[in-house]
Design goal:
61% helix; two-stranded parallel ribbon; alpha+beta; 4-stranded antiparallel sheet; Outer membrane efflux proteins (OEP)
Length: 467
Amino acid sequence: MKLKPTGKLLFFLPLTFLLLPATAQERHDFSLQQTVDYAMKNSVQVKNALLDVKHQAAVNDEFTAAAYPHINGTISSTYNPNVATMSFPNFIAAATYGVLEDEGVKDGNGNTIVSPTDFGFIQAQFGTKYSSNIGVSLTQLLFDGQVFVGLKARKTALEWSAKNTEITQENIKANIHKIYYQLLVSKRQIALLDANIALIEKLSKDTKLMYENGFVEKLDMDKQQVQLSNLNTEKRKALNGIETGFLGLKVLMGMPVKDTLVLTDSISDDLIKDGALEMAAYNYNDRPEFQYAALGKKLAEFNIRRYQLSQIPTISLSGSYFKNAQRSKFDFFGKGDWFTVSSINLNINVPIFNGFAMRSKIAQTQIELEKTNNQVEALKLNIDQEVLAAQLNFRSAIISMDYQKQNMELAEKVYNQTKKKYEIGTGSALEITQAQTDLKSAQTNYISALYDAIIAKVDYMKATGKL
């Protein structure tokens, strides 16, 4: 069973209604392109996608920082309530005894002094209760394969994030096309309902005159009132569907729901048919999804290169310059000596063995690259399928639209002829009722076919990357 155009809208756009603050109501008279442009600036989904691009740029800046010099200043002060005591061999006594032995010095008993076998230990405190340092240190990376690969990958990573934004914009654009044209079709549906209501009202008046003159039964008048009531009910439902569609379109665009949106474009069969017979060749690169996948493949290749270069040495240069002072009291701001400590270091880090962890990382990333290659090939097949299916659906929808239009025009002729027969008394009430039912059915089928053709065209343009 086919959905009516007003019902299809609910399928394409689940609506989320938000409580919005009261704002001044504005009127927007928009063509389709203006509607799309407004959504590209105000849609929450597009805004967040653009923020993702800015986030990636910030991540790139963070990675770039690894290649810049890193400078740090240090100020420190230390208080030692108990200065550390160290115990070490009594080298002073040993040296003294050695001199005495060499000089042949004798003790008070006249005996030559002989060094003891054990001089014991000396306990001494080294340092002061207070010490302070102030200085600056610098580190500059000279060579790191991983960092250099990361610097090369920055542009690709930013393009990858931007391409994801294009995919979001493309999807929103496709939905806007469908809803915009659906609303235009719904307006045409209202026009047909109004025309039918006018016909039934005119027929009801004529039937009333015929009833008053005894040519028809009251049952015939009642049937027409039922038809009129049904048409008015359907019109109210269609109008409600249109209002719901406008609300959905506003939410998709990021427009305040209290604003007034007026659609200025019109729709015609020729507009829908445009390009139906000229199925142009398509290119995979016209699809943002394919470009996104290709950039993902390139990032995977960078990842493999990063792990491969992590196995070669890294080189960095570091230096420091400090002033150091030691005091028995905390009087560093007064007079006293400050001693200079400085150093310059060349650091080379050579990976030797890490338990084959890096070999495992490289194997993992190579597998991920193979999976990405498979996904790219699968995407090609999906694009081929989408394009061919979209072409078939588009052509079929055009044929169905033309057929339903011809059928509607024929139903109108049948109704008009049956009405004339009824008015002159050669036709029955059953015939006019059946003709009216057939006309209404033909109009409904035409509106449904018209909307199907629009959807088919949008899907075809999206599949070929021409939307």
